[in-house]
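TOKENISED FOLD:
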Amino acid sequence: MPAHSTRKDLGQFAHGQFRVDYEDRPDHTVLREKRIARARDAMKAAGLDALLVWKNENVRYLTGLRAQIIAGKSAVLNGCLLLPDGAPILLASGGEVQRATIVMPWIEEIHAVPIMEARGLVRGMVESTLKPLLERNGVGAGRIGLDESGYVLVQAIQELIPSVQLADGDAPMHAARLIKFPEELAIMEEAAAIAEAVTQTAIDAVRPGVRETDVVAEAMHTLFRLGGEQAHVDTPFVASGEHMAPPNRIPSDKIIRDGDLVFIDIGAGWSGYWGDMGRTVVCGGKPSRRQQEVYTAVHGCLMAATATMKAGNTNDDVARAVHAVATEQGLGGNFISLFIGHGVGIGSNEPPYIGEELPGAETLTLQQGMTFAVEPLIWVPGVRGGAGVRLEDTIVVAAEGGRPLTRTSFDERLLLA
């Protein structure tokens, strides 16, 4: 059988969600194989004999498992053991095992595991499942990369499998996920299309007399109607008026009023990947001059960041471009105390970062295929109706500058000529 060739424009736009016979779309079987190969390359480069991952995005990357996520428990529910050869071994919550056995034929070995918190259950899993797996596959005395877990698992491995050396398994997974395959970009384009629809629904719901939570309710209906898996943040970010100065990053019972600036950041996940975006709009009537000044500055920051996100530049170059625009507008000291941008892909928020000012922040050379959510936020206190603005796009690094995957238009009423 001849090798399958992919369409030349794969990943350039949202091709459609359905599996169809009339055109080529992302092949998830091919993508899974590519992801596993890249993870193995990263594992080898890190000097690891195996990877033991528990973070939901890493398990999804290696196995394709879309699991039920209990709030606050995403890194203690399901795991995966990746060895130098063979299919990934799925360590699944008992509630997933029977379904996964039927619907995921590419997974050849599945073991039920408990929620990885109760000491006795964790020790039982290490002794009866993990130790035999490692020994049977020749890595019982190997260097095993672990991405995230409670200390109870680390302690159990150290006590019950003392021949194993634990090492950082998260950094290799980040390295594997950093540059996106065309299939990944195509899926992210689809997630972005859903995120745009969610955002537009929220914008259309903004009017005097509705609550912030009303806007979220309308948007979430669109998210699920279009097949989205979940919002980019578990606490959808809709804040109005003075709630954006300083930012209140949750929706509340606050009633939106005429003249309020309203920020919307909900996004969408689809097929394991994320479209992250945010827009600020004015409710009702004409915005104030100060609101326009802040909005225009933030819009300029986002445009400068997008233009600077060309291969060969650094994340620091992008941050400097953003701060230069804000400083020129007299707002350089009014940023939220947070990074300006973050990596995004199969992880909703992940390294590397743009504009992180905390100790230990790294400088990174941008490469084509890296994807970031860029989200400058500037706020000014004491303005009636609020003067806090964030604008956010998911952007892929390209040769000549960033290419936004998210397209929702900006509020022209807030842009100064």
Observations:
- The radius of gyration is 23 Å.
- The chain has a mean pLDDT of 96.
